[in-house]
Every structure is written in C-alpha cells, then in structure tokens.
Write a structure and sequence with these properties.
The chain is an alpha+beta fold. The protein has six helices and 18 strands.
Length: 297
C-alpha cells in the first residue's frame, strides 16, 4: 500500500454505517497523504472505509494551530480525508467516532455528560457523551442562497439517475457544503447513486447531495421525521452522513415554515440519528461504534 508505514496500528469504527479507519499519530510524524488515505480506504486492496481519520495533536497541524488560538482546550485535531484521499472540512459521524477512538486509546477521559473540544478544518467541535451515544455541536449553519432561496424552497437544480424530473435543491452549509432535494418515497427507492448527481449551477468546490422524504408535519408538532439517502463528495453513496443528516433536517425545517419542528429524527440506511437546532447552531446525536483493531503488515 503506497505510503503506508509498516506496523501502523489502526481501528475500524462507524456511526450508523458510515465507516472509518482511524489511527493515532499524536506528534504528527506520519506523512498523511492523499495516497495513504485512499489506500487504507480501498475496499478491495486496503482496509475499506468511507474515510480515514488521523488523531494528531492540534499543535502539529497548521489548521490545528488556528483552532488552538480559538480554543486552547482543543488538544486533538480530527485530520479527516475522504475515501478518495481528498480533505474534508467536517464529518458529523466521523467526529463522534473520533471521540470514541480517543477514549479507547486513553487519550481523553469522559464521563456521561462530559464534553471535549475537537479541532477540525471547520473550526472547534464540541462533542458530549450522551449515555451510550455522542452529541456533536456542529456549530453555525447557513443557507448560502439566503432567505430568497428559502422562500423558493431551492436555489439549484438536481438531476439524478432513476428520477425522471429535475429536482429543486436547497443549498445548506454545515461547515461543509450540501444540497438537499425533496423526493417521494417511490423516487427515493428508485434513485441510483452509482454516479454523482448533477447540480446546476455546479458548486465551486463540489457538494454532498441529500435526497429526502419528509413525513407530514402538523402545526404545533415539536418533532419531525425524515428519511434520506446521500451521495457524499469524494466517496459516493454511504449508509449515513452526519452533516448530511443535519443539512437535511435544516432543509426540512425550512420547508415546514417558521413554526416547524426544531428537533428531527433522521432515518438513514445505516440507522437513525437525531438533529436539534439550538439557536444558531445545530447538534447531531447518534451512536459511535468501534468494531476492530489491526496492524498493517
């Protein structure tokens, strides 16, 4: 495997089926290249994963030093690469699995209700132990198209295999870019995500695309429910996407009107997540499971 150091110890983990290879490099001595990440993530010639996460002290990463200036408690940096080796700003499932990995490695100690600050390329992420799950404060979010896009329910068009009509997509930023499109249950089932959906106009840096079925919401409901599938930028279709779940919930909230629920259950192929809007930030809660440990030959 190109660039892979012999003897590298790794852990395999997932959050609702969104899976990761994780390894600890506290002092930043490993050259974590795109080639190394892609090799580890390869499902035939590597270990196999949707992404690869290096646990490194923030002081040893340029972006981590910026994070430390904002929050000196953010000792650990989640150095995340997609399956194709490209860098990603944030991963909502990944950051929860990252904290579970830090605990497993004895790098942090957390009790129920305790919170840890994690450095990411999207800034500082606060992750809280919540019983047997983890809740990640993914920070500020926005609709890049502004209120005009919200009023129209969309600001781009999405074309996807298996869906005959063009779909209106709403752009949502949750530290990384997303486009959310509403579909029927029949369209969701027929959808093919073997290829990247076409988004017009095309986002400059690419985007994740979520397809959402919104369950009926009545006036006064405090919780809503959606079902979604996702094509992740740099990966393909995944069983789950944490930031995608948040983006989908935010879009569903916008589509439901100003009195819509601010708490949403998000059903993904790999399980179930919970999203809450807290003032100007969004929180994602769900499981994080470590399933295997190994060593490269």
């Amino acid at each position: 495997m190109e660039g892979a150091p012999a003897g590298l110890q790794f852990t395999k983990g997932h959050g609702t089926g969104n899976d990761f290879v994780l390894f600890a490099d506290p002092d930043g001595v490993i050259d974590f290249t795109a080639e190394l990440a892609a090799g580890l993530a390869d499902r035939r010639f590597g270990i196999g994963a949707d992404g690869v996460i290096r646990a490194v002290r923030s002081e040893h990463v340029e972006e981590g030093q910026t994070v430390l200036a904002l929050d000196p408690a953010a000792e650990w940096f989640m150095d995340y690469r997609n399956a194709d080796g490209s860098l990603a700003e944030m991963c909502g499932n990944g950051v929860r699995v990252f904290v579970a990995f830090l605990q497993d490695q004895g790098l942090v100690t957390l009790g129920d209700g305790d919170t840890v600050s994690v450095g990411t390329r999207a800034g500082v992420c606060e992750v809280r132990c919540d019983g047997h799950e983890y809740a990640a404060d993914l920070g500020a979010w926005k609709f890049p198209g502004g209120q005009a896009a919200v009023r129209r329910s969309c600001d781009v068009q999405v074309f996807a295999d298996g869906v005959e009509r063009p779909l209106g997509g709403l752009s949502v930023s949750v530290g990384n870019p997303h486009v959310v499109a509403s579909v029927t249950a029949e369209e969701l089932a027929a959808l093919s995500l073997r290829e990247m959906p076409q988004v017009t106009p095309a986002p400059k840096n690419g985007t994740n695309v979520e397809f959402v079925v919104l369950s009926p919401v009545s006036v006064g409901d405090t919780e809503g429910e959606i079902t979604m599938r996702v094509y992740e930028r740099g990966v393909g279709e995944t069983l789950s996407c944490g930031t995608g779940a948040c983006a989908a919930a935010l879009a569903a909230w916008a589509w439901s009107g100003p009195a819509g629920p601010t708490t949403w259950t998000v059903n993904v192929p790999g399980g179930r997540l919970r999203v809450r809007m807290l003032d100007d930030v969004v929180e994602l809660t769900g499981p994080a499971e470590l399933v295997a440990r190994g060593q490269l030959l």
